[in-house]
Design goal:
Family: Belongs to the TRAFAC class TrmE-Era-EngA-EngB-Septin-like GTPase superfamily. Era GTPase family.
Membrane topology: Peripheral membrane protein
Largest sheet: 7 strands, mixed
Pfam family, one: KH_2
Organism: Microcaecilia unicolor
Number of domains: 3
CATH topology of the largest domain: Rossmann fold
Protein name: GTPase Era, mitochondrial
Number of strands: 13
Radius of gyration: 23 Å
Helix content: 25-40%
CATH architecture of the largest domain: 3-Layer(aba) Sandwich
Mean pLDDT: 76
Low-confidence stretches: 7-59, 148-164, 244-271
Structural class: alpha/beta
């Protein structure tokens, strides 16, 4: 039994600043489409396509697209970075429990959706990198799977990457963002043992606490208690005076939250990652005698007293994400860029496509069904008008799963194809013709 549906997505924008790298020649249709998007004439749109800034425009810098051509993407990744005069870099690991919002935050910081997002756990299956380039600064985002225990990995037969990748990210990072879902009343009062262990075993990596999903809280005053619990009342080595560093809804307007700073002094908030709390860290670790004893003590802890700063935001709607982004840019260290400014992610085009389709499967299929779907891309080519044509076969193990995936009248699989196609258009900035075929694995 099989079914094939197709999702047609029309270009909505174009903004590839490094088009000259691969001999890009924008068609008249592309120019007209870009002109509609930017509200400019064709000449100005052409400038946006080639990365020529419009001095009269006050729009934010447009993140580059990802090439859907595998060879072009690989060429760009090995291409010598276009170093500015005084390059700066900050490598940021983003860790937290499953479904804390790590990929959503990464996508917001990048300006394009390149990492899969779903309400189900373990949507991100392995470490992936995103690259934010602004001015002379490059942020390298290390999006990681949710931290899990070895026991849970074995119990649910999960990939080893889910266990190892967050630790690999910590070893590469200059700074770690620890995300906590404050809307989950069952888990929000503790960072969790796996997160605490990760922080403890990498003491030289500065950490920042990020309280996510604040838009889902009716009572913003809860954030005061959570901040105190998760930091043990200490931020940047100082006793936390929560009344002076947080705006409640009554102070800032309903639904408005601000970053939570440990102090108001610019000198105190602009330190170099890894250079803070040396005395505090020594005192803290000296109290514990052996690594086994340390880990036993960590199981009794809920918070971490060595956070450099605390932010409160909503990654899903972008609330206060720009403030966090500016903060990260100020912490970047003088260092040569690692990627060309046109690189948005280190993922291959096919990996991005697989992840986005799998995200939709996780959203629309119940329980364990989406985790057992095997994806097989049988066609990936450029069409006669420059569109991307993709045919992917979804293999399932049971007849009931075939019917479930197709849906009544093919509505389910059609919706998956259309939504995945729209996301792919946003990543590749081109027309996308996505076909999905469902088959029973024999």
């Amino acid at each position: 039994m099989a079914a094939v549906v197709m999702g047609r997505v029309i270009r909505a924008a174009a903004g590839h600043r490094g088009a000259e790298l691969f001999g890009f020649r924008p068609t008249q249709r592309r120019l007209k489409t870009a002109a509609r998007f930017y509200g400019k004439d064709a000449a100005s749109a052409f400038g946006h396509l080639l990365g020529v800034a419009d001095p009269e425009s006050d729009r934010q810098q447009i993140p580059p697209a990802v090439s859907f051509n595998k060879a072009e993407q690989e060429n760009l990744l090995v291409h010598k970075p276009d170093q500015p005069e005084n390059p700066k870099v900050l490598r940021v690991a983003i860790i937290g429990a499953p479904n804390a919002g790590k990929s959503t935050l990464s996508n917001q910081l990048l300006g394009r959706k390149v990492f899969p997002v779903s309400k189900k756990v373990h949507t991100t299956r392995c470490q992936a990198q995103g690259v934010v380039t602004e001015g002379d600064t490059q942020l390298i985002l290390l999006d990681t799977p949710g931290l899990i225990s070895r026991l849970k990995m074995k119990r649910h037969d999960l990939e080893k990457s889910l266990l190892q990748d967050p630790w690999d990210s910590m070893q590469m990072a200059d700074l770690v963002l620890v995300l906590v879902d404050v809307s989950d009343k069952w888990t929000r009062h503790s960072l969790g043992f796996e997160v605490l262990k990760c922080l403890f075993l990498h003491p030289k990596v500065s950490s920042v606490l990020v309280l996510n999903k604040v838009d889902l809280l009716k009572k913003k005053s809860i954030l005061l208690d959570l901040t105190w619990e998760l930091t043990e009342g200490i931020v940047k080595g100082k006793k936390l005076n929560v009344k002076s560093v947080i705006k409640t809804s009554a102070d800032a307007g309903e639904g408005n939250t601000s970053p939570l700073w440990a102090s108001s002094s610019k000198e105190e908030t602009s330190g170099t990652p890894g250079s803070l709390f040396s005395d505090e860290l020594a005192d803290y670790t000296d109290r514990l005698q052996t690594e086994k004893q340390q880990l036993r003590d960590l199981r009794e802890k809920k918070g971490w007293p060595l956070f450099q700063d605390v932010f409160m935001l909503s990654a899903v709607n972008g609330e206060e994400v720009h403030t966090l982004k500016k903060y990260l840019l100020t912490l970047a260290r003088p260092s040569p860029w690692e990627f060309h400014s046109e690189v948005l992610t280190t993922q291959s085009p096919q990996d991005i496509c697989d992840n986005i389709i799998r995200e939709k499967l996780l959203e629309y299929l119940p329980q364990e069904v989406p985790y057992n779907v095997i994806q097989d891309t049988v066609l990936w080519e450029e069409g006669p008008s420059g569109e991307l044509v993709i045919l992917q076969v979804l293999l399932v193990q049971k007849e009931s799963h075939v019917k479930m995936l197709i849906g009544r009248g093919g509505q389910q699989i059609s919706m998956i194809a259309q939504e995945a196609g729209k996301d792919l258009m946003n990543v590749f900035l081109c027309d996308v013709l996505l076909k999905l075929s469902v088959k029973l694995k024999r």
